[in-house]
Amino acid sequence: MDVFEAINKRYSHKREFKDEPVPRETLKKIVQAGIQAPSGCNEQTTDFVIVDDPALIREIAAITERPFIKTAGAIIACIVNQRPVYRGLSFEVEDCSAAVENMLLSITALGYAAVWIEGNILVEGKPEKLNSLLKVPAPKYVRVLLPLGIPPEQGTQKEKKPFARRAWFNTYDG
Amino acid sequence: MDVFEAINKRYSHKREFKDEPVPRETLKKIVQAGIQAPSGCNEQTTDFVIVDDPALIREIAAITERPFIKTAGAIIACIVNQRPVYRGLSFEVEDCSAAVENMLLSITALGYAAVWIEGNILVEGKPEKLNSLLKVPAPKYVRVLLPLGIPPEQGTQKEKKPFARRAWFNTYDG
Q1: Which residue in A18, A79, B28, B135 has its CB near the most CB atoms, within 10 A?
Q2: Do the domain assignments include residue A169?
Q3: Do B134 and A170 touch (CB under 8 A)?
Q4: pLDDT in tens, B35-44
């Protein structure tokens, strides 16, 4: 699928998925796209746990308290590693986000749908629960979950503000 | 260009560009791809200043102390707005990074090259200088610069660690 088509078609799927597994070769292709994302100083701080064990998927759904996640064919958990790489600055959020976006576009291109779950799992002791479940050693932690699967019907991207309200030439005008 | 081809071909161009302007229609298409990136709670916190005034490009190059930036056909400045949108959490870095990745893939697909500049402009009083130059009102600030142009020759993506060292099924094993 063309890059611009994927960018246009990507949307946040927050409903049930069809009851179909995602083949491991497909999951590897999606995560390889995440691996190839840029990272600060090419430090590649993001790791990935690809969850396709149905029991683990159900446990993750319970932690997130979002029942639709139970129906995902797989969940990609993105693990971050906060570590200064340039003048005391750490870019683990940037690294993870770029990897997530590569994966969301790849998921779209391959006919699947997903949703970026982040704030939900950063509160209320959920980081500890997810670290324990997926055996992630602290201080590394699961920053983002991408539940994915085949959507029952194609959703659409939420409306965005028009170009003129978000971009200008040469001088900020917001 | 196919999504996976763009993900494979994207690379960080840290050298001079050909002396060719980037048409405004092309710049708008690239920034529109950034606008359509996902954002926390669809709050769309990232704005964009598209710099194609040669005098401003030279001034930005001087601030970054990276002389090759003088040769860019344009620079896309990504403006962030730190603002809690979910349980006290702010996602302006995620929002900006997803937009940057959409734009880097679009830049690649259109035959241009660019580099993600971030740490360089977050230190040593540079945020204040860039805000002043582009008339960005604080507390908003320029988080990322994307100098872009036609590369004299096609570069290649830096090597990434193999899949087996970054990804595992169902249990973290790093």
Answers
A1: A79
A2: no
A3: yes
A4: 999 999 999 9
Please indicate whether, in this complex, the C-beta atoms of B3 and A161 are within 8 angstroms of each other: no
Residue B93 is part of a domain; what is its CATH number?
A: 3.40.109.10
Within 8 A of B169 by CB-CB distance, chain A residues are 24, 49-53
Contact A3 B105 (CB under 8 A): yes
Closest by Cβ to A87, choosing from B51, B109, B123 = B123
Write out the DSSP string of B130-168.
Answer: HHHHHTPPTT-EEEEEEEEE--SS---PPP---GGGTEE
> Is residue A167 a part of any domain in this protein?
no
Comparing CB atoms, the residue among A37, A136, A166 nearest residue B47 is A166
Q: Which domain holds residue A12?
A: 3-154
Nearest to A28 among B10, B41, B163 (CB): B163
Question: Model confidence over A94-128: pLDDT tens digits?
Answer: 999 999 999 999 999 999 999 999 999 999 999 99
As a dihedral over the C-alpha atoms of residue A17, residue A23, residue A29, residue A33, rounded to 10 degrees, the angle is: 30
Angle of helix A126-134 versus helix A54-64 axis, rounded to 10: 170
Specify if A165 maps to a domain: no
Q: pTM for the full model?
A: 0.98
Please indicate whether, in this complex, the C-beta atoms of A37 and B79 are within 8 angstroms of each other.
no
Report chain A residues whose CB lies below 8 A from the CB of B9. none
Q: Which candidate, B134, B109, B137, places its Cα nearest to that of B50?
A: B134
- Taking an 8 Å cut-off on Cβ atoms, the answer to whether A109 and B3 are in contact is yes
Q: Do B3 and A51 touch (CB under 8 A)?
A: no
What's the complex ipTM?
A: 0.97
Strands (E), B81-140: 113-114
Q: How many domains does chain B have?
A: 1
The answer to whether residue B150 sits within a structural domain is yes
